[in-house]
Amino acid sequence: MSIKRTTPLRVAVLASGRGSNLQAVIDAIEAGEVHATIVAVISNKKDAAALERARKHGLPDLFVDPKPFAGRPDSREAYDRALLEVLEKHNVELVLLAGYMKIVTAVLVNAYANRMMNIHPSLLPSFPGLEVQKKAIEWGCKLAGCTVHFVTEGVDEGPIILQAAVPIFDGDTSDTLATRILVQEHKIYPRAVQLFAEGRLQVDGRRVRIDGGHPVGEAIISPS
Ligand code: GAR
Description:
Elements: E1 9-14, H1 20-30, E2 36-43, H2 49-56, E3 61-63, H3 75-89, E4 94-97, H4 106-111, E5 116-120, H5 132-138, E6 143-150, E7 160-167, H6 174-197, E8 201-204, E9 207-210
Parallel strand pairs: 1-2, 1-4, 2-3, 4-5
Antiparallel strand pairs: 5-6, 6-7, 8-9
Helix pairs in contact: 1-6, 5-6
The structure holds glycinamide ribonucleotide.
Residues 15, 17-21, 98-99, 119-121, 156, 182, 185 line the site of glycinamide ribonucleotide.
């Protein structure tokens, strides 16, 4: 059963770079497709384009410098405690990792269990980690894609919410494939946020059940 919210879902986005997925979520909210409000865009990189995108849309942007935490044995946890303070101060209900290139620790994962999502440019559990488009091509895969999943301590391992598949063409480079995948990322990330806002995601072990969700009817065969 989905739950009707009266107030928009309070979302924070953690991003380290370009921020095109952040932009897709902003655009979907502004278009009225996602019932949410972005209460903070946070980066570990001072010059992240994502922060600039936030400012352009009048959204609160925040650079949290990892340097003061470096060198201590619990540097990653200490950094995440600083982030958690910000998230709690803003009453954040859902955290989105959007090109956030830092591994989150149990500090954040536990505080936001089943309330923190990540987008990853592969069909998980194939190709977790980095340079995944290149790896998919090198493996000779005929399909690639992207995954939105809840975040757990294992990198790119959490329960899968939505996936989109794209073909890999003979002439593809990492860049051409990444671009094709990115188009789909921009569709499924806002969609996952809206499903969450509607209370339609139920986590059952590794599986996420979507209230009223229907799998695509046909197999995707590549090459056709
Ligand atoms: C996206 O392709 C996202 O899936 C990937 O980084 C890119 C960020 O782009 N994330 C990961 O690889 C995380 N494992 P963006 O900054 O334009 O959203």
